[in-house]
Design goal:
Blueprint lengths: L13 E2 L6 E2 L2 H11 L18 H28 L7 H16 L3 E3 L6 H5 L3 E3 L4 E10 L5 E9 L4 H9 L6 H9 L1 H6 L4 E6 L10 E4 L8 H5 L3 E3 L3 E6 L7 E4 L9 H9 L6 H30 L3 H19 L14
Parallel strand pairs: 3-9, 5-10, 8-11
Antiparallel strand pairs: 1-2, 4-5, 5-6, 7-8, 7-10
């Protein structure tokens, strides 16, 4: 049996969670911590080989991640409390909800990331209530030129995609940065927009479908609103542009004519349409009313007939009973004497 590593006399009973030091008593454990400076707390970030990885190690990692998430949330709350400018205002929250609702009305399922994420910071998509139009942030990726990325802001939903590509590649602009971008995209400028293959990157897909895109080449002359209708987006759309001569090593799916979900705009349009009642139901209502009135008249006539059909015998009996009741009411009480002719 192994002995205590501190006193070397008694067999060990305890093992340090951090360094696996073997001790026999509390005194030996405290002596070990004083001499070595060990904290005695189990290390949550030490390396464990895959062959030795057990259920306890997994639960330890899970608890560590939960602890880190809780500490990060606490620090963020304290940071917002000390600096109110960093907190998301209610007005900004209402704007985000309004943006999601307007996108849903346009047939687009838009998801926004939490504040602080990179895509959330660079996204300037907004809704203009005066023009009743969405203005998008759009990103283009050009794989033939070392995955050059071009980010455009405030793009109206009514603008066609071909015009967006022309603005990037050919249209004269006063910005010096555009000259550098066009120099890097010289292959695309020489090929022309007619030879482009455009694909919309699909968001919210499994890991094995990351290279799946929706083919938007037939809709290059369509407005951005029609292109994005029926799609699910994370913050803003991302388009990959390839040259037709270089076949892309990706999967291109055809855009479905039927949206993946029903937008609220269809319900709004239905509520705005005037309700025209057909002729047949109205006639049925009139007939029902006339039938009800006729039934009331017939019931009244039947009641009158029933009164007229009473036999004279019954009438006599009823009259006798009425007279008898009248006599009873007029008769004097039993205490008072009744005057007779003899007494008079």
């Amino acid at each position: 049996m192994q002995l205590c590593e501190c006193c070397k006399k008694n067999p060990f009973k305890y093992k340090c969670p951090r360094c696996a030091f073997k001790s026999c008593s509390l005194d030996c454990s405290k002596t070990h911590k004083i001499k070595t400076g060990c904290s005695g707390e189990r290390s949550k970030t030490h390396y464990v080989p895959l062959k030795q990885y057990s259920y306890n190690d997994m639960m330890s990692d899970y608890g560590y991640l939960e602890d880190m998430s809780r500490q990060a949330d606490t620090l963020s709350r304290l940071n917002m409390k000390n600096d109110p400018k960093k907190a998301v205002s209610k007005n900004a929250m209402w704007k985000q909800k309004g943006l999601v609702n307007q996108a849903e009305r346009a047939g687009i399922r838009l998801s926004l990331l939490p504040a602080g994420m990179k895509r959330r910071k660079i996204n300037n998509t907004n809704y203009n209530p005066k023009q009743r139009l969405l203005f998008w942030t759009v990103e283009f990726i050009f794989p033939a030129c070392e995955d050059k990325k071009v980010l455009l802001h405030r793009i109206p939903a009514s603008k066609p995609m071909r015009e967006l590509l022309d603005d990037i590649l050919t249209t004269d602009t006063p910005h010096a940065s555009d000259a550098l971008t066009r120099f890097q995209l010289q292959k695309y400028i020489d090929s022309g927009t007619d030879s482009f293959v455009v694909g919309l990157k699909k968001d919210f897909v499994p890991a094995d479908q990351q290279n799946t895109f929706i083919d938007m080449t037939p809709m290059m002359d369509a407005p951005l609103a029609d292109i994005l209708k029926g799609e699910s987006l994370c913050e803003f759309p991302i388009f990959n542009v390839w040259i037709d001569t270089a076949a892309p090593a990706v999967t291109l799916e055809e855009k479905s004519e039927i949206p993946s979900f029903r937008g609220l705009h269809t319900l709004v349009e239905q509520t705005k349409k005037p309700v025209e009642s057909p002729a047949e139901p109205m006639e049925e209502v009139v007939d029902a009313s006339t039938e009800s009135s006729s039934e009331e008249v017939s019931s009244e006539s039947e009641a009158e007939k029933s009164d007229d059909d009473v036999s004279p015998v019954e009438m006599g009996e009823s009259s006798q009973t009425v007279e008898a009741s009248d006599v009873d009411e007029k008769s004097p009480p039993a205490d008072e004497p009744i005057a007779t002719s003899s007494s008079m």
